[in-house]
Amino acid sequence: MIGNKGLLIGFMILVMQVIPTTAEDNVSETAGFGLPCLWRRIKVPKSLLADKGFAGDMRIGDLDGDGNIEFILFRSADSGMKPCFIGAFNSNGEKLWQDGREGEQPQRPGPVAVYDFDGDGRAEVLCFFIDLAVKAPVNSMNNVVIQIRDGLTGKVIRQAAPASMRQCAGEGANWVHHRLLIANFRGTKRPQDFVVKLGSKVLAFTKDLDLLWTYHIRWNEYSRCSAYIPSVGDIDGDKRDEVNGGYYILDDNGRPLWEGQIAGHMDSVAIVPWDDGKMRAICSGYGHVLDSKGKVVLCLGRELVPHGQEVRVADFDKSLPGPEMIIRYNGHNPDVMVVANSGKVIRRFELNYSPNHTGMEAVKWNGKAREALLYNGGVLWRANGQKFADLPNLPSPIGPTKMGWYHCIAANVCGDQRQEVVLYNPWDKYVWIFSPEPLRPAAFDGYKAGPGQYNPRLMD
């Protein structure tokens, strides 16, 4: 948006909760990419905000089956790792439901996932929740239950407090990252299971909250521990998911296909297609790519990647075969490098400042046929090292250093196969959704969630 029209919209966002952009004649593009425009700015309902005015951590999903996204908001107790308040609102800024008490700001993106377990088109909410009737130390899970809630009403459908989880306790960097990941360990038609890492333990459950298996992690020392947040995917092609923790790859039954302490700073991992479509384990530590048995397909090495902080894989460069890797290779700094799946380092460049220098995400901004862009701290980048665009009207981040950046979920929320960026700041009270111009309402055929939304790689 430019000129007087941009000034008018800037004024409108001060007085409106939701700003749908209606101009379909905005067709300006750069190198074939639609420039970003604000599709909606959604104000969190006041009744869902904490007394201090902030919202909290969020997830997205279709809770009522109407083909539009809704939002789950939660806050926590005991230093931010045990949800004690949860609520839902829609894309018009209207509250759907809430449960629990006030809550603190989650220290990091926490243990809540939005997923349609029963396949009826309406997503359920999977979450940890604190049991206030049980007293336990901050670093203990003894007062936490697992819940599956109806996404539309918030009603608890199932709840369990398995001893295997309640016995977990810990401290330090490898304890404070609790994330629930939807997975398919039993070969069902659609994922019906989930996994969580709690310090030195990995636990897998069915949708009925029955324990499938546990795995003990041997390495938990800071900078020499396995991935804070593992990833899931079918790396061996048997229609069942494996778990990549950087120092291990677990089969669907929880047994290690491989394990070993291969590099320091194993902060970010994935299971994605890499060379000739083969599924590989991507690991930020020294820039590793592994096969299902742990055989090294690529290792950039300690000299090139002294501290692999974040890594994202997508088709960032259409002039090269297959996907590329963009890795933040020097810890909490703006330095990134682009690596072809041949192993060749194509280029290095510096991203813009983002608090804590985390929060990268690959975005299919103009659909699968065009090269992906990289989101970082309110800016979209091309893999040639050129800034594509700043997201317009986005305010400066607020909140503590580790929570003040904009959490990004890439999702096709308003049609035509192009992905929007859904942004939130846990210390703010708004959700921002930016879309590529031109807007194409007629192409919208309903929001459909994929792993990038129900297992978002939100960095912390």
Tell me, what's the shape? Answer: globular
Distance between the termini: 32 Å
List unreliable stretches of 5+ residues: 1-29
Helix content: under 10%
The total of beta strands comes to: 34
Largest β-sheet summary: 4 strands, antiparallel
Radius of gyration: 21 Å
Characterization of this structure:
This protein is globular. It contains 3 helices and 34 strands. A 4-stranded antiparallel β-sheet has the order 3-34-33-32, with no helix packed on it. With 460 residues, it is mainly beta.
What's a quick, concise take on this entry?
The protein has about 450 residues and is mainly beta.
Q: Main attributes?
A:
single chain, 460 residues, four-stranded antiparallel beta sheet, mainly beta, globular
Task: Present the secondary structure layout.
Blueprint: H1 3-12, E1 29-30, E2 33-34, E3 36-43, E4 57-61, E5 70-77, E6 82-90, E7 95-100, E8 112-115, E9 124-130, E10 144-150, E11 156-160, H2 163-166, E12 181-183, E13 193-198, E14 201-206, E15 211-216, E16 231-233, E17 242-244, E18 248-250, E19 256-259, E20 269-273, E21 279-283, E22 288-290, E23 296-299, E24 310-314, E25 324-328, E26 335-340, E27 345-350, E28 361-363, E29 373-376, E30 379-381, E31 387-390, E32 407-411, E33 420-424, E34 430-436, H3 451-454
Antiparallel strand pairs: 1-2, 3-34, 4-5, 5-6, 6-7, 8-9, 9-10, 10-11, 12-13, 13-14, 14-15, 16-17, 17-18, 18-19, 20-21, 21-22, 22-23, 24-25, 25-26, 26-27, 28-29, 29-30, 30-31, 32-33, 33-34
